[in-house]
C-alpha cells in the first residue's frame, strides 16, 4: 500500500468498514480492468487530494468578493485561481467554475439566453447529441421547442446542409454543437457562420473533447462560439464538475443563471480540484497526452476494422469510436455485458438510424482517454482490439467460460500500467 492511500483510508476503515471495503473493491476493479468508457478517466493524486480536502466543510453562496457567508478569504482565492487558469488555458474572456456538472451547466445557459417556449436547436440524441440539447425526455425538450439535426446516412458525419436548412427555417434562439457520441471533428467555424446568418447564439458543448482542445489535439471553439460549456472530467482529467466559458457580452447573464438562478453554494473542494487539473493541463506533457489519445483511438479503430467491425463514420478524429455491431449479429447490450465480465469496460450505445431500441441498441461506444492516462500506446491497441473481438465472438457462441480467461490476461497486462491514487501491490 502507498502512504497516500493508507492515509486516505485509515480513519474510514475503522469508522465505516463497509464503505471502506466497497471503495477498496472499486479501486481494485478500476485497476484490474481496461477502461474504455468515453466519459471516464483517472485523475492525478493531486486532484484526488484536493477533492478529498477540508474545503468540503465550507459553504460559499455567491461569487468571490460577493458572498453571503463570512470566512471566504481563501475560498475566494481558490475560485479566482481556477477562473484565471480556465481563461488562460482556453483563451476565454470569462469563466464560471461553479456548475455542479455538465447538465446543470447547460441548463444555466438556457436560463441565461432563452425563455420557455423558445426554439432551440441541437444534435438529436440517437445521432450522437446530448439529452440537454433539447431531447424530448429531458427538461430541455419539455420546456423549449426543440429542433434536431443529425448525420448523413452515407458518411455518419454531421449533415451541415441540414443544420443550415433547419436553422434558416426555424431561426432558433440558440444552437448547440457538440455531443456525446461524435467520433469526428466538430466544424466550429461552419456552425458559427450558420448561427450568424440566423441570429442565433452558438453554444459549443465540449464536455468530451475539452482535454483535446486544451492539449491542441482538436480545433478550439473559442472565437467561434459565444458560449462554451464543458465538464471537467473526461479528457480534461479533472474532478466531476463543470465550467461555462463565454465572451464578455454574456458573462453577467451566465453568472446570474448559475447563482442564484439554479444553484446555491459551490462545491469548494471540487473548485480546488478543477484548479489543480487546469494547472496540469497547462503543462507541456498534457499536450503529449492529448495527442496520444487521438493516436490510440485511430490505432484501435484500425485494429477493429481489420477484424471486420463497422465503425460509424468509418473511424475517428478524436478519442471516441462508435461501433455498429449489426453486421456481427449481436446487440450492443449483450456485448457490453460480456466485455465487462471479460475485463473491458465500455457502454452499449445507439448508432445513427438504429433499428433497435435505445436500451437494447446496436452499438458500442469506446474512448481512449483512460487507457492513455495509464500509459498505453498504439501497439497496445492491437491487444485491446483482439480481446474485444474474442469476447464478442465468445458471447455470440455462448462460451461464457472464455470471459474469465480473457479477464485474467487483461489483469496481468494492466499490472504494468498503475492508476493514480491506487497502491501498486
TrEMBL record:
Entry superkingdom: Bacteria
The keyword Electron transport belongs to this UniProt entry's keyword annotation: no
Domain Serine hydroxymethyltransferase-like: from-to ranges: 13-388
EC annotation from Swiss-Prot or TrEMBL: 2.1.2.1
Catalytic activity: (6R)-5,10-methylene-5,6,7,8-tetrahydrofolate + glycine + H2O = (6S)-5,6,7,8-tetrahydrofolate + L-serine
Residues annotated to bind (6S)-5,6,7,8-tetrahydrofolate: 125, 129-131
Residues spanning the signal sequence: none
Cited InterPro entries: PyrdxlP-dep_Trfase, PyrdxlP-dep_Trfase_major, PyrdxlP-dep_Trfase_small, Ser_HO-MeTrfase, Ser_HO-MeTrfase-like, Ser_HO-MeTrfase_PLP_BS, SHMT-like_dom
Compartments, record wording: Cytoplasm
Major place of residence: cytoplasm
GO molecular function: glycine hydroxymethyltransferase activity
The protein's enzyme class: transferase
Chain positions of site Plays an important role in substrate specificity: 233
Keywords noted in UniProt: Amino-acid biosynthesis, Cytoplasm, One-carbon metabolism, Pyridoxal phosphate, Transferase
Cofactor(s) the record lists: pyridoxal 5'-phosphate
Positions bearing N6-(pyridoxal phosphate)lysine: 234
Pathway named in the protein's UniProt entry: One-carbon metabolism; tetrahydrofolate interconversion; Amino-acid biosynthesis; glycine biosynthesis; glycine from L-serine: step 1/1
Family note: Belongs to the SHMT family.
Assembly information from the UniProt record: Homodimer.
Function of the molecule: Catalyzes the reversible interconversion of serine and glycine with tetrahydrofolate (THF) serving as the one-carbon carrier. This reaction serves as the major source of one-carbon groups required for the biosynthesis of purines, thymidylate, methionine, and other important biomolecules. Also exhibits THF-independent aldolase activity toward beta-hydroxyamino acids, producing glycine and aldehydes, via a retro-aldol mechanism.
Protein name: Serine hydroxymethyltransferase
Originating organism: Salininema proteolyticum
Amino acid at each position: 500500500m502507498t502512504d497516500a492511500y493508507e492515509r486516505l483510508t485509515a480513519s474510514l476503515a475503522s469508522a465505516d468498514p463497509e464503505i471502506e471495503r466497497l471503495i477498496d473493491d472499486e479501486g481494485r476493479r478500476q485497476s484490474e480492468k481496461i477502461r474504455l468508457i468515453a466519459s471516464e478517466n483517472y485523475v492525478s493524486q493531486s486532484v484526488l487530494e484536493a477533492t478529498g480536502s477540508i474545503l468540503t466543510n465550507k459553504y460559499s453562496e455567491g461569487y468571490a468578493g460577493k458572498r453571503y457567508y463570512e470566512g471566504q478569504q481563501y475560498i475566494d482565492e481558490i475560485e479566482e485561481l481556477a477562473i484565471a487558469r480556465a481563461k488562460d488555458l482556453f483563451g476565454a474572456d470569462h469563466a464560471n467554475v461553479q456548475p455542479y456538472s455538465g447538465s446543470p451547466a447547460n441548463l444555466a445557459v438556457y436560463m441565461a439566453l432563452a425563455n420557455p417556449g423558445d426554439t432551440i436547436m441541437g444534435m438529436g440524441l440517437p445521432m450522437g447529441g446530448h439529452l440537454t440539447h433539447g431531447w424530448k425526455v429531458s427538461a430541455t425538450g419539455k420546456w423549449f421547442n426543440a429542433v434536431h439535426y443529425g448525420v448523413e446516412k452515407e458518411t455518419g458525419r454531421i449533415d451541415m446542409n441540414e443544420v443550415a436548412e433547419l436553422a434558416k427555417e426555424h431561426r432558433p434562439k440558440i444552437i448547440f454543437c457538440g455531443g456525446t457520441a461524435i467520433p469526428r471533428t466538430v466544424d466550429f467555424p461552419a456552425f458559427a457562420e450558420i448561427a450568424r446568418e440566423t441570429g442565433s447564439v452558438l453554444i459549443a458543448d465540449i464536455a468530451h473533447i475539452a482535454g483535446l482542445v486544451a492539449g491542441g489535439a482538436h480545433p478550439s471553439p473559442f472565437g467561434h462560439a459565444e458560449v462554451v460549456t464543458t465538464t471537467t472530467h473526461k479528457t480534461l482529467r479533472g474532478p466531476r464538475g463543470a465550467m461555462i466559458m463565454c465572451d464578455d457580452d454574456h458573462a453577467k447573464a451566465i453568472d446570474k443563471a448559475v447563482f442564484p438562478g439554479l444553484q446555491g453554494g459551490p462545491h469548494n473542494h471540487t473548485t480546488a480540484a478543477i484548479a489543480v487539473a487546469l494547472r496540469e493541463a497547462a503543462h507541456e506533457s498534457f499536450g503529449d497526452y492529448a495527442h496520444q489519445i487521438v493516436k490510440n483511438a485511430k490505432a484501435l479503430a484500425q485494429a477493429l476494422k481489420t477484424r471486420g467491425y463497422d465503425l460509424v463514420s468509418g473511424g475517428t478524429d478524436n478519442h471516441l469510436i462508435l461501433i455498429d455491431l449489426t453486421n456481427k449479429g449481436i446487440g450492443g447490450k449483450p456485448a457490453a455485458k460480456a466485455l465487462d465480465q471479460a475485463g473491458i469496460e465500455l457502454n452499449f450505445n445507439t448508432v445513427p438510424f438504429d433499428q433497435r431500441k435505445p436500451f437494447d441498441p446496436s452499438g458500442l461506444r469506446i474512448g481512449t482517454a483512460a487507457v492513455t492516462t495509464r500509459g498505453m500506446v498504439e501497439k497496445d491497441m492491437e491487444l485491446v482490439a483482439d480481446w474485444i473481438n474474442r469476447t464478442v465472438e465468445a458471447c455470440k457462441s455462448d462460451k461464457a467460460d472464455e470471459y474469465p480467461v480473457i479477464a485474467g490476461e487483461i489483469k496481468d497486462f494492466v499490472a504494468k500500467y498503475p492508476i493514480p491514487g491506487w497502491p501498486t501491490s
